[in-house]
Amino acid sequence: MAQQAYMTETDGGGSDPERRETRIRRLLGRAVGGWRGDRRIWRRGLVTAAVALLLAAVMAAHSHIPNAIGNLGSLTETFLPWFGLLIPVLLVIALVRKSATALIALILPVSVWLNLFGGLLFDKTGSGGDLTVATHNVNADNADPAGTARAVAAAGADVLALEELKASAVPTYEKALAAKYPHHAVVGTVGLWSKYPVSAVKPVDIELGWKRAMRATVTTPSGPIAVYVAHLPSVRVKLEAGFTARQRDKSADALGEAIADEKLPRKILLGDLNGTMNDRSLTAITSQLRSPQGAVGDGFGFSWPASFPMARIDQILVTGVEPMTSWTLPATGSDHLPIAARVKVDTTAS
Q1: Which residues pair with 230 in a beta bridge?
Q2: Distance between CA 327 and CA 300 in Å, rounded?
Q3: Stretch 328-338: mean pLDDT, rounded?
């Protein structure tokens, strides 16, 4: 009798893992049960499937979207990573509609997005390197230039570039950075601060009519490096004109020509390019230089706007040096986030 009672109690109660497994099976059974035997799962959600295929086509063929009308191609490429947010939305719709067709169609945009940006989901940062560089658009209307200067200097960069320098604020930045950076040069609205000697400073004509780009030689312990600092013209999204970037594109081509004519093999570009690495209009620049963020960064490294970063329009681009790591710095009084990278200087380049 005791044995029979024991067996009855055991069979009726079950262990906790068994009960959890039973619940999971029951839930899955309910979910699948609603689909089983439903022939309409292939006919429902055709619109959702079509949208999924269109999304995949836009991401895969973004370079073929014409710029003739409102620079639509460049606008798409600026915010291209965010197109991935449509995928979970379409997934929910497909599940609610119980559409097998839509679910299968979603495989394509998922594959395209992962092919384009999947590598950025992983931390590729390394160690080592012998030169740290940083850049920051400090915002001409920055209410605390001294605090911004101290915050950026705290990152420990050996070479620091600042853009959108207001003439009246330059002395404040010079004073705040003097202790850490004995060498500096300011050209128009851009400036360069360095722990190492700076020479051969000159403006770079980016066809604006005023000075927003410069070039200098920074003599590091491992050899000289040509450092460019640039702030390309701003772009706007206007209802009547689309993505207005003509002047930015013209300046990008001029800057690309200057970099191509550079004699030194080691080159670093620091600045606010008002465009992402995906933007075809910056090809004159990006075809010559590589981004440490893309090579050895952690995540997308969005830098603008500081309150809710949506795009990486501030760039560190290099050639002749080996990227080791790249990161985004904390917010300052600017509407941009500062960014930094550490590189290893190629001592074989001459």
Answers
A1: 213, 271
A2: 10
A3: 97
Confidence of residue 39 (pLDDT cuts 50, 70, 90): confident
pTM: predicted TM-score of the whole model, two decimal places: 0.85
Residues 6+ apart with CB under 8 A from 38: 98
User: What Å distances lie between residue 257 and 2, 25, 217, 230, 332, CA to CA?
Assistant: 93, 64, 18, 13, 33
Per the rule left: phi > 0, alpha: psi between -120 and 50, beta: everything else, 70 is left
How many CB atoms within 10 Å of residue 179?
9
In angstroms, rounded to a whole number, what is the distance separating the alpha carbons of residues 195 and 210? 28
Q: What sections of the chain are H helices per DSSP?
A: 2-13, 16-33, 46-60, 72-78, 86-97, 100-105, 107-117, 145-153, 170-177, 246-260, 283-286, 292-296
The gap from C-alpha 70 to its chain's centroid, in whole angstroms, comes to 23
Going 168 to 170 to 173 to 177, the CA torsion angle's sign is negative
Q: Which two tokens stand for residue 113?
A: 């997005």
- Say yes or no to pLDDT of 277 above 60: yes
The residue among 211, 210, 149, 153 whose CA lies nearest residue 186 is 211
Rounded CA gap, 45 and 293, in Å? Answer: 39
For 196-208, the DSSP string reads S-EEEEEE---SS
**Helix, strand, or coil (residue 249):** helix
Rounded to 5 degrees, φ, ψ at 272 are -100, 105
E strand or H helix that includes residue 231: strand 223-231
Q: From residue 14, how far is each of 1, 5, 23, 136, 298 by CA, in Å?
A: 20, 14, 12, 63, 47
Q: Give the phi and the psi of residue 300 in degrees, each rounded to 5.
A: -80, -25
CB 259 within 8 A of CB 289: yes
